[in-house]
Fold each of these.
Amino acid sequence: MNQRPADTVAFSMAAPLAGPAPEVAVSNDMVKRGLWVAPVLIAVCGLVWGADGAWSCAYAIAIVLVNFALASGIVAVTARISLQLMMASILLGYLVRLGLIFLAVYLVKDADWISLPALGATIIFTHLGLLVWELKYVAISLAYPGLKPKSTQPNTHSIARQ
Amino acid sequence: MEAIVRLIAATAPVQTPDEIKAANAAIGAGFAYGLAAIGPGIGIGFVVGKAIEAMARQPEAAGMVRTTMFLGIAFTEALALIGFVVFILLGL
């Protein structure tokens, strides 16, 4: 086992994570790509489900992108405070974000312009599609996802030692 | 006893087959969303727990671990979203 000796690691769960937040870079990449493909998705949904489908598709894309941004924001902010808070906020944030998605859909479910099949299909397709697209870059680069490594800079991520 | 039965019959709404079908769909949708949210909840907890363990063992790899953790969370959450979509299509 390649473990550090216990006396050399003064790790604390209450310690913050120093360095830039990679999840924000991931989220920004996915939002950018989502905005690029949004017109295509909206056009496809418009062809299949009509104008209602196009509006619903746009709304679903907005839900997915805001969900990604919110998730990364929660991780980035709480990681600067402590790992304990990060874990708690990720788990609680999961419930809160599901609740927000439910609320966002519930508020418009009876609207004239909503098409629930288009909304549901777009949520799943956009969420999974953007993730797979991003995963490709992460797997290839093994560095900051979606962004080319700028140089041979050493990894600056570290856990602040107390 | 007969009076109670008559009272229940008087107060209970008459349900048509369509209403019964809609009620069953709503119950099914509720179960679909609820059950679909449990698994990802456990999965996200597992992913984050292991990621923190990894960061504790190798602090210099924290950036990569956080990236992988975030993607893992998002993939796991996709299962809950699929359950949610089933929910909105069935009974919202």
Amino acid sequence: MTSGIEKAFKKLKKENKKAFIPYIMAGDPSLEKTRDIVLMFEECGADIVELGVPFTDPIADGPTIQRASERALKAGVTLKKVIAFVKELRKSTQIPIVLMTYYNPVFKYGEEIFIKDAKDAGVDGVIVPDLPPDEGEEFIQQSMKAGLSAIFLLAPTSTVGRIKKVVKASKGFIYYVTITGVTGAALLLDSSIETLVSEIRKYTDKPIAVGFGVSTPEEASAVAKVSDGVIVGSAIVRRLHESPDELRNYLISLREAINGLV
Amino acid sequence: MPETLIPALKELEEAFLRSKKDKEFQGELSYLQKTYIGRPTPLYFAKRFTEYLGGAKVYLKREDLAHTGAHKINNALAQALLAKKMGKKRVIAETGAGQHGVATATGAALFGLKCEIYMGTEDMQRQALNVFRMRLLGAKVTEVPVGSKTLKDAINEALRDWTTNVHTTHYVLGTVFGPHPFPVMVRDFQSIIGKETRRQILDGEGRLPDYLVACVGGGSNAIGLFYEFLDEDIHMIGVEAGGRGIETGEHAARFAGGSIGVFQGCKTYLLQDEDGNVLGTHSVSAGLDYAAIGPEHPYLKDKGRINYTYATDDEALSAFELLSNTEGIIPALESAHALAEVVKLAPKLSQEKIIIVNLSGRGDKDVQHVAKIKGIEL
């Protein structure tokens, strides 16, 4: 079974293009607003949307997404509500959606039922940043059975052993974290990203999308050149709150940069 | 745990296992335990406290007399030494009551390592004295103003720092919590408490005790005392923070009010809501004010090996004053929770029975906070 994510990457490959994957925290500041933003992402040329699920203790996130998470929790948003939200959203858009959720909400929901509910609602993939594949064997198997892409992360610290394990477990794409650090930290644009992405390529044909710290169109362009897709999170969340009027133009500039038009 | 940290955890596990067989490491640690920490700490028969309670004999394991004033130094010093052997230039730590922060800052000063301590805003206010101590010791104390602004948020922030600076930094986790190898390693470094206690009670009484009592936040002082005696016929009681009472929801009694979850790198009992978000906690003692518990405790509870109960803020405060008055020993508010259980337990037992309670820390750090609660201006 080819997932929505795999289809998207296949199409991009044919067109010789790279994926633009913007992130938004669901329910920041409300689910109605999130719906508008997801549709705006699509209008501005996003290929896949990453939808954050709020959690009280987001250890992989920097201050921008921590605050977004706090706002969404304050608005009463939970994993259950995000799944219902995606179901509703499917009436308006078919863009592939990846949830980014920490593990404890999934554990509390029940892995198996979570995977079923998410899939039924129209979710295409799931990223659990605090669940390494070693601890997620059940999760991987059940996701595979349900046709939900479980996406795992690699980092600059990953050894060859880790790379082999993660590329084997990952479906849809592999999420390469550009920096040792949390989301929204400063990106160091040097040759190391290219070196490490090519290292990962030795072990897999699956698409590799790159995220954490990508903020400017210049950075997006540089990262797109050496990978299959660019994930932008904190910089979008920040703009949504500090200068919402600029968000649309910013998204367009990222899309163009990823297309190599900058 | 985030993927970025997995190799670091592996590296740490290997270094820890090597250190166990490394005679030089063990020799240096044992020398510092004796000459720097001041071990063995005394096992003291609390005669007037015992007479006041009118039941079992109560002994105090005086971890409050260890250098820096709590058991935390046993682990922090050993981990700082390990960090130095691993070639790390910098150590970081979380702290709640401030004792682990002070102990880590002390270890860093001793070995010439850079040190940064994360502490929740609320804890910085109620443990202001320890904040100043850490700074005196040359550590940078960084405020964590997010979430519940207490220990769990300090751990989150320390994990973020470690993720960012993993190449140069060792994270000195302060309790038997978090991802492997921390729960095992911290237990190993704290188990000296129980080993000394066995020798000391055999010397003093010619037999082992009937009860062991310790407070449980993350659970390192309790495991440190209990581990040595798990195979013996001894009752063991862990005392959690009952805060303003379980029914109020304002507490940190994970067994009384929590359920199983996966949090900060381990599967354990957790105070959480039905959606898996972690609940805010309350305790008069910053060191017990934490939503989760070290994973070995649920294991030992489910096996029926250790019983867990809780003491409320009021019970702990009253035990805090009672020990001060009867023995001239001001206990840490954390340890006062264990004492509160002894206050309930000892009178029910005959005078032949022996209770050993881990006096895990001294109360100097809490004096200001207690005065404030009593409405006294200092």
Amino acid sequence: MSEAFLAVKEIHKSFNGQKAVNGISFTIDKGEIFGLLGPNGAGKTTVIRILSTVLEADAGDVTVGGYSLRKNPAAVRNLVGVCPQDLALYEELSALDNLIFFGQLEGLSGREAKSQAISHLSLMGLTERGKGKISKFSGGMKRRINLAIALMGNPKLLFLDEPTVGIDPQSRNNIFETIRSLRDKGMTVLYTTHYMEEADRLCDRIAIMDGGKFVAMDTPQGLKRQIGDPDKVTLEDVFLKLTGRSLRD
Amino acid sequence: MKRALIIALREVRTYLKDKADLAFSLLLPVATFALIYGAFGGTGLFHGTAYIVNEDTNGIYAEKLVEKIGQEQSLDVELLSRQDAENKLDRSDLNIVLLIPSGFSDKLISDQPGELTFLQRGNGGQEGQIVASIIRGVVSGLNQEFTVLDQSNQLLTGKDIAPEKIAFTTQKFLEKEQQSPLIEVKETAIGSKPNMVNQFLPGIITMYVLFAINVGTTAIVEERRKGTLERLLTTHLSLGELFFGKFMASALRGFIQTFILLALSYAVFRIFTPISFLECLLIALLFTMACSTLGLVIASVSRTQDSATWIGVTFTMAMTMFGGTFFTISKGTALYALSKLSINTYANDAFKAIITEGGHISDLGVEIGVIAGVAIVGLVVSRLLFKAVPRGK
């Protein structure tokens, strides 16, 4: 029987009286890639912010690896790595310096941080560019470094908030392969994206979120089956059917 | 604490890697020092220009007067036409001009009193008054010469002595008296020298340290702009550590600049003793720390770089003005009461006490207490006000 590494129970979050997250619950098993899809403003980033301890939920609780987020956020931070949607890098520093800096903040010694940084640069295919300044990197390279930083400290649970936005197919492919290899080593991943075919290829299960709630949660095949023949319909068809075709802010 | 140090070191590393920023911030105190040196350096004695309208063309006493004024070490002479002088006075290009009227020499030759006039705007300005005072001294010396010559002539005329010999001998006595006056005025310096550098350096240092406010404001806002702030908060770094790290980095950066300025002043102007130099450094460090925390308070309430910059600049200007940085505020005035609200007042008083008055840090309990208090309270308040994301950390 699989074991839930992340368990989210009825979390709520409002901003100025407006519900951003409205009582969602889900679990992610150890070594599972869980996709979180939704239109703009659905509440995906707020969920990730709550799970990564940046925001506090108004109600509900989250446990990660058996630790309650509310009671023991420091222990939870030990277990998670976050790759934010926006590139969060120090452009004036080298890739290696960025990785070492964040590694040290994760509690690694200077030597450990450097060793992990070199290993993660290799994983991202950027060994040769380690000493290059981030400001000189292409968009795809920056995205890969953004992900590599999230891996510093070897987290058990990885939050990836649209990690492939605006990059070339080679970089995207590298990121996919990295995520799969991490999953194969037992890492648990929560993945948000707007690219449906990406979620279809990568995720074991997917939740579709709209208006702060889950409107569906299943395997990609299971979701497609809800509206027709899974070999003929796409995940995008499911998404549009469940969230509507009206434009979002 | 270790993570706060990592944050501070990262800031320092970024500072060192940005060559333009590094060069600018290190050259700024050198440039400021060069300006101070240009303005007040050298002897520290007054030097001005005597603007003169000489309408007594070819008058021997007018020429003699101009020549005597020109011999004053602290004055240069610039001759102007009457029209030119009036235009410049009208435009406030000049504040005071000496007018030698036509017939000035003829009157003196015919034993009538001559008259000189100062054309001036208002009281002639501070420099103008000094120039006028020096000119009055020259005129007084000339008066004395005429009186002595006149009396010698009266006493010796008709005693079978050639007038040329009377004039020559009298002139010799006058010159001897000038070289060895009966009453000589000497200067003995007690404590530090009261020169312009001493007067203005405390204000300049205070202003300089205030730049740390702007460094402090940008430190946090930049993290928000880059998107790294939220990422930092997902690590093991606490907000307290983040703030303390930023505080250390901006205080260090501000202090390095102030150190350069003080060290150059120490080496070139020689207005410090080793002890007073170290005391000034200590006050500068404490004041930089206080300013850095004020910068963090501003950063805590600012959402954008622009708002942080504007609040920082407005705050700095208000502190400078209310703090009487470059002028003395009279006791009992409303401005004096307001000045007590400016941290500049305490820093400026502390620097003045050491640089200008030759005091010691042990006499500055109130000033040191206020500055240290601002540093501690500022750090706590900035942390309490700060929200990385709305309703979040």
